[in-house]
Model the fold of this input.
Amino acid sequence: MQPTPSSRLWHGVSWYPELAPERIDADLERMRERGLSVVRLGDSCWSTLEPDEGHYDLTLYQQAIDRIAAHGLHAILCSPSYTPPRWLALRYPGALRVDRDGQSHGHGGRGHGSYASTRFRELACGIATVMAQAWGRHPALLGWQIDNEVNCHVDGDWSVETRMAWGDWLRRRFGTIAALNHAWQTRVWSLEYASFAEVQMPGKNPFGHTTGTSGGTHHTGLMQAWGEFHSDLTVGFVEAQAAALRVHSPAPITHNHIQLERTRSADLFRRLDFAATDSYWWADVASNHWHNIAILRGLGKPWWLMETSANQSGGGTPGPLKPAGFLRAEAALFYGAGGTGFLYWHWRQHRGGQEQGHGALRTAWDLPALGWDEVRRVSDLVERCGDFLTSCPAAPAEIAVHDPFSSKQYIGRGGAPMGDGDAQWTYRRAIDQELLPQGWLFDRLPEDGDPSPYRVVLSPWMPVLWPETLERMLPWVRAGGTWVVGPVSAIRDRHGSAPADAGFGLLEAHLGATCLWTAGMSAEGDLAGRPVKLSGFCAALQAGTAEVLGRYTTGYGAGQAWLTRQRVGAGSIVMIAAPGKDLYGPVIEMLLEPLGVRRFTRTAGAVVLARSGQGQRGWVLVELHGTGAEVELPDAGTDLLTGEVLPAGPRHLGPFEVRVVRC
Done:
């Protein structure tokens, strides 16, 4: 039976046979000796396979894929649209991406093709079709990856065809220009448009200088729509190649998604077969990996880590080295959280071009690089624990945090005061640095995602609240769920406009409290009888039927509520109406502990991951920061790495210690 991306734990590396064709067999043999099982290739092979338009030479890649099979390995084959060849740029300059100042992205890097270009899409689908015809049913083929890290190093495209696609997208979304003007409230500042053709792409503007804009602040509705348009454009580009591949190949398809703020993850993977990401972090901030992991877990599909480094990153200046033991802990984090692939970029150090300093498994002169022995330790982990982790799935977290793509397009666009003056303080700092270090594991839930697997859903820094999200959430709350909204949430509609009927729009009817006013301010307040400092975009709540959990004690809001809880059926909706530095974690702790939501560590850098299913239970314990940690093992069991029988209860994890416990 042909294996699948989730039928076992896969351990592998990115490989470029075109860079050293004389070493193909030696490379693959060494991969086998290191315990690797999968090879990722092809993401920059376009000029090798199609040296001139319509002229193909598949000889080298046919040899490489045949030899992968001969060595008992499998392949993830990438479509090469990330690296358009020189002939494409010379022959079709209109197929290249254009920046906001009108300068075309030239040859010499990567990712310079325009997703809006009809010709570029045709050429990208053309080479993907040729590859699928040649290798779509090859016994070595495990799956396809489309392109590479879409939108990674760019913030948009201002080409002629993008301009046409922008107008068409707006017409499909709004129907009439009057509807757009109403949704965006364009009479403010005399911004009305007479036709969709008049709606400009964002460029220079004299008012303000804000994160995400160049030369000034644009209309918030336009900027939010621009971000969502580019996400849809990107998804369409990926789906076009997926359709081309599926004509000739039944193999599963993915993409290695890394710019999670530029392309909506749920849309990108909706029609792909498994999800993947790239993630590069070092020991003292390794818990940042969870940002990507949580989003993939919330998609409900098998998922992989398609790229990390075995020693150090280095797109520009080489990053910090990974200390001994850390790589195995990293792998245990990804496998323990439910991933079934863990791959390195890349096999051999590049001798030319960008990223020569990036870590690799082999040096340019073909000696073992730093991390070579650590890779073997990861292989040992896979060999000892792979069967159990494959047959006993990762359990969902009890907590989900909304992944608000629409709000990410609004944040920092001018008109959304967000915390202490830094627009990106927002959800990432509060969630990654206040929840996870305190042991609150969470999955990320798409805006239109199903909350039913979770006991608690958090919606912080989510200014744009869709009506569809509210419709999803209310039945779940009535059935017993706890929904914690805020801070800085539900203050704008899906087009970035302030609500006209209530401060929190449609949500306010379910809060048992009235929003009196909002303001950017600093004030003091109380939380469960202790003083707290509040700062940022604050709202004053006048409680009706809601229980008041926190009030302002100084300033204009003195006596009014900033934290309320309203019973709704068997559940409740909590509104956090004011942010404060390092405040979100304590608020969540106060709310969740009475609910009995369990956490098994309160030490930053340690995670305890549940496994459950198919009649089995287990736990994966990982220390990531190299400082040691105190954790709780909830159930007694056998550590598959050492054979020890471990009792339930508190235990100390040493630096980078890993335990995989079958109960």
Remarks:
- The first helix runs from residue 24 to 33.
